[in-house]
Design brief:
Length: 325
């Protein structure tokens, strides 16, 4: 298949591209390589992809409609997976403008390019578990009312879901949204808890543990996320014209357990912890029901923290050994 991935030099985009290339697909990637986090990590991911004969990357910002349209016109994708976005809950509190540019204007450009493309591609796009806001009932289900986001990042992701619904309704496009739950694994973003905690552990610096460590997260290993996305890429028929799916690990695990497994995997006997109150925009717990995605494509996450985090630790130790400063 011809598959276009936006955000291909990002964490999930990179892993998805590698899996699709390994299965023989032709993949085009676009990424703007912005400096939200270490550009060298994005460059290293992209370098891995460029080694594959079925991949070609473009340095394109999805907020640049003309440049994005040129990629569509040249490649004529059958499927588009939109993973490009400004990420981060806390970052959105101090930097709101970049979220409007990437997550709203950029996503609108993706919708418009899909709408007008001769190839009439199907669109899969990233939403976020952040849309559930402060909902207390667990597990989170897709039919819950999510009209009370508690961060601008979450609000833009909810807006993406509504925008996609509109385009599906008006133009008959298939748009499938995925609410990701705390993804971790090798090649992860430095702002993710797994990576930032690992950085501090190996440096002997204290980890800021919010809500005094009393937090629960549906930690999802990146290979499980990719498996769910690939299943939806492959199932051209039988899926709704518009749908939103949770894509998580279907279990909620303690933040303190995650820190303990990380410390062991990195050989840190006595991690330094700095307990802090809950941060604005954060939530106490996340826990996904993945029944809807299981029923649709047989999605079945299989990687607990005890298996996934040691794999992450092995990559992290190797990366730190050759990291470009």
């Amino acid at each position: 298949m011809r598959i276009l991935i936006t955000g291909s030099a990002g964490f999930i985009g990179f892993h998805l591209a590698r899996r699709l290339l390994a299965e023989g697909d032709e993949v085009r990637g676009v990424d703007n390589f912005n400096d939200y986090y270490m550009v060298a990590l994005k460059e290293a991911r992209n370098a891995q992809l460029e080694k594959e004969s079925g991949f070609a990357g473009r340095r394109v910002d999805i907020a640049d409609k003309a440049a994005l349209k040129a990629v569509f016109d040249e490649f004529k994708p059958e499927v588009v997976v939109n993973l490009a976005a400004q990420a981060g809950v806390r970052y959105s509190i101090d930097n709101p403008d970049v979220y409007a540019e990437s997550n709203l204007v950029g996503f609108l450009n993706v919708l418009e390019c899909c709408r007008h493309a001769e190839s009439q591609p199907r669109l899969l796009f990233a939403s976020s578990s952040s849309v559930y806001g402060g909902i207390q009932e667990m597990p989170f289900r897709e039919d819950m009312k999510v009209d009370t986001p508690i961060s601008l990042y979450a609000a833009t992701k909810k807006a993406n879901e509504l925008m996609a619904h509109c385009y599906s309704h008006l133009y008959g496009m298939q748009t499938l949204g995925f609410r990701f739950f705390t993804v971790y694994g090798p090649w992860g973003r430095p702002d993710l808890a797994s990576v930032s905690f690992a950085e501090k552990l190996v440096a002997g610096k204290p980890i800021k543990v919010f809500n005094n460590g009393d937090m629960l997260r549906d930690f999802t290993y990146v290979d499980d996320i990719v498996d769910g996305l690939v299943r939806c890429v492959r199932k051209a028929g039988g899926l709704p014209q518009y749908a939103i799916y949770n894509i998580g690990n279907h279990r909620s695990e303690k933040l303190m357990d995650m820190i303990a497994i990380l410390a062991k995997g990195l050989g840190v006997a006595d991690p330094k912890l700095e307990f802090m109150p809950m941060q604005p925009g954060d939530v106490y717990a996340t826990y996904a029901s993945v029944d809807k995605l299981h029923e649709a494509v047989g999605y079945e996450p299989t990687t607990p923290l005890s298996v996934g985090l040691p794999k992450f630790c092995e990559w992290f130790k190797e990366w730190k050994g050759k990291e470009v400063k």
